[in-house]
Amino acid sequence: MLLSLKSFIFYFLIGIFILSPSIIFAESQHIKESLSQNQIEIPLKQALGDEAYTQAMSSGQYKYVGNSKCRLCHREFFIGRKHDLHDFTMQKLVKSKNEKNSRCLVCHSTGYGVDSGFVSMETTPRLANVQCEGCHGPGSLHIKLAKEKMKLRSNVGVKGFLVGADNQKRLKKMCTSCHVSEKNNSYKDLQSAYDSYRYPNPNEKNK
Amino acid sequence: MKYFFKNNNISILLFILVLSISYLSFYNYKIQNNLLLKQMENNAGHIASSIYTSIKHFKDIKSTVSLQKLVRDLSFGLDIFDFRFIKHDGVIKHSMFKKEIGQVSSSKSFQEILQGEKKLKTFFFEERDFVKVMAIYYPIYRNNDLIGIIDLSVDIVEYNQMPYRNKFILEQRKIDLLNLLKSIEGSIVNNLSVIEETDTDSFLNAHINFTTNIEQILLVDNNTNKIIHSSNKKLVATIYEMNNSSSGLFTIDKKLIYKTALQNNTNNTKLVLLINASEYAKNEQKLLQTAIITSVIALLLALFIARGVYYSAMKQSRSEKKRLEYLVKERTLEIELLSKTDSLTGLWNRGYLEEMLEMEFKRAHRYNHDISIMLIDLDHFKKVNDTYGHLCGDDVLREVSNRIKSCVRDTDFVGRYGGEEFVVILPETAISGCKKIANKILKSISDKPIKFESNLITITTSIGISRLKEEHSNQKTLFYEADLALYRAKKEGRNRIILFDEMD
User: Fold this and answer.
1) What's the CATH class of domain A43-196?
2) With an 8 Å Cβ cutoff, is A68 touching chain B?
3) pTM of the model
4) Is B1 exposed, middle or buried (CB count within 10 Å of its CB: 0-12, 13-18, 19+)?
5) pLDDT tens digit string along B174-197?
6) Which of B76, B200, B258, B259 would staple B277 via disulfide (CB 3.0–4.6 Å)?
7) d(CA A196, CA A204)
8) pLDDT in tens, A148-192
9) Residue B73: phi, psi to the nearest 5?
10) pLDDT tens-digit profile of B392-419?
11) Crossing angle, helix B200-210 and helix B167-195, to 10 degrees?
């Protein structure tokens, strides 16, 4: 009985050893491809354009705050997005041991490469994954405006985002800066995907 | 008066000292007491003005100050994940999320709290909105009644990321949160007394219940002196109408009460605050005790010093007295001796000799004892004086007296009777013994010449001796007999001894 268990483990290990190259190859195929390309431009910069980007950043009004602050007013979105794949991007990087790779982090985190954006899991864990600000840009100005509006007892039409819902063109550009066909095969119909993200949980088809 | 001061200067000084110390201590007591009063007055004034402003802006405060605002401000300022104020029945009164307000909390952990499975005031970990958080349920009490529970949670991403490295941060966070909760508790308790009470009376009541030493708060109309609003305790209300002065201390129902009144001219009302002044009374008593103790100590000290001074003075006077007594004794002895002795030779003088002779005679006569006397006269002493001078004569007399003294016994009396005449009284001595001594004297004087400056003076003596006999009635006869014998000796050629008994 003991012998048979031992021999089973032995053959299992040999099997894994023989099969391993093909497994590794299959996993790293997409990663290798993306790594061989040039450094990707920061998505926010791509969406805004160089001039607007530098102007916005030098104004000092825009800072990343993290989604726990967004939750104060948009709690249903916070909960809904917990089921979205955007909330697991960091997990994916950790799996493939690329959590320190700047090429990957540009798209897999919130505001990597931008001042007050994501730096590393140790220093800025609150900005891990692609959060609200990952697409809409830094939220500090929005919060400031929201507070002022709240004092006036109305929170209708609070703006203050670099990439807000009022500028759909920019928002779509933000999507496409990361979601290129070569990097994400699942991404095909931009418009329908964009529309689904109007709801707290985009994967739930509750239109 | 002057005499009195001179004699009692120390006691007067001490008395003044005691008086001044007592005065100082009581002065200090007075100042401290005034300070206490003033402090109480100030405090009362502050309280009164704060209550007044509260009443004045009662409606404004009610509408604007709310826990919801507090919650909102807190949640934006700090990294707080959840903040709810839940009533004890489970209804969410205030929350970070407006939609929740009014609903019954369905949280699992809160149910556990209600059932007593989870402890209040302890941190625990839980998943909320798919995020692992650290949460706490913190009860708020007012007057021992549970008025609600704060449900607070914080996002602990850093800790989740690296549990071991950030353990310290977590602990720090806990302390911060507890401090925050305490301050929130304070503001909730304070605010609720304003927010929850609906009219002025009950607000005043709530204020009294919340504070410890305020007895009653009254709002009085200035013109009619009638009470518009008052807190519950009516015991002071009627008393107030009797004492309408502005402020001060009163005793009402065996309680020491401090009254302060705040005038408001705009709506012609007066806020009267009655504060329990038992604490002040206690302090005042303590101060008074200290003052009394200080003066008593000063008094005791003064008494002690006075006692010490008195003792030392007594001691000094006693020793002085002793010294004086000793001096007097010595002086009297000296004088006595001087009156009995001859100044030139140091022998007994004539007066003392006669006294002694009488005494000895009487004693010998009574007990039938022997007594002999000797009369010694220097031969041709006048010649010595004439040739060598009186100084020499004095010297010779001194030398002779010394020689006589050296020949007699201690019990014999040697005296100078006058001029160059000496008397020796020999009590208890028979005539034979007397004769022996007389021979000795005669020899000692005549054998050696007396030296004066460069001269050697040879001098001889004649001695007459008599003894006591039964027929003698007094000492004078005895003396007379010796004188007769001396006279005979002179007559027979000097430098010899003649006994009266051997005369024919």
Assistant:
1) mainly alpha
2) yes
3) 0.47
4) exposed
5) 888 888 888 777 777 766 655 555
6) B258
7) 8
8) 887 776 667 778 888 888 888 888 888 888 887 666 656 667 788
9) -60, -45
10) 888 888 888 899 989 898 888 899 888 8
11) 140
> CB neighbours of B412 closer than 8 A, spacing ≥ 6?
B424, B425, B426, B427, B429, B437
Q: What average pLDDT does this structure show over B4-33?
A: 84
Q: Is A143 on the interface with B (CB under 8 A)?
A: yes
How many whole angstroms separate alpha carbon A67 and alpha carbon A88? 14
Asked if the Cβ–Cβ distance from B157 to A82 is below 8 Å, we say: no
Specify the amino acid at residue B247.
S
Of B481, B458, B461, which is closest to residue B407 (Cα–Cα)? B461
Q: To probe the interface with B, which of A69, A73, A74, A75 has the most B CB atoms within 10 Å?
A: A75
Pairing of strands B269-276, B255-264: antiparallel
User: Which residues of chain A register pLDDT less than 70?
Assistant: 1-3, 16, 18-39, 153-155, 181-188, 205-207
Chain A: residue whose CA lies nearest to B158:
A125
Best of A72, A131, A145 to disrupt the B interface (most B CBs within 10 Å) is A72
Please tell me the distance from the alpha carbon of residue B437 to that of residue B442, in angstroms, as a whole number: 9
Reduced to 3 states (helix: H, G, I; strand: E, B; else coil), residue A131 is coil
Measured distance CA(B430)–CA(B214) in Å, rounded: 122
Question: A100, A76, A15, A95: which is closest to A201 by C-alpha?
Answer: A76
Residue B280 has pLDDT above 50, yes or no: yes
Distance in angstroms (rounded) separating the CA atoms of residues B92 and B72: 15
- The span from the CA of A162 to the CA of B272, in Å, is 60
Q: At what angle do helices B350-367 and B475-491 cross, to 10 degrees?
A: 110
**Ordered structural domains, chain B, with CATH:** 60-196 (3.30.450.20), 202-279 (3.30.450), 350-502 (3.30.70.270)
Residue A93 makes CB contacts below 8 A (sequence gap 6+) with: A99, A101, A104, A105, A108
Q: Which amino acid is at B499?
A: L
Does the pLDDT at position B321 exceed 90? Answer: yes
Q: pLDDT higher for B504 or B175?
A: B175
Mean pLDDT rounded to a whole number for chain B: 82
Q: Is B428 helix (H, G, I), strand (E, B) or coil?
A: coil
**Euclidean distance between CA atoms B240 and B274, whole angstroms:** 9
Is B178 strand, coil or helix? helix
Residue A78 touches partner B, C-beta closer than 8 Å: yes
Most confident of B75-84, B119-128, B467-476: B119-128
The winner for highest mean pLDDT among B80-84, B223-227, B488-492 is B488-492
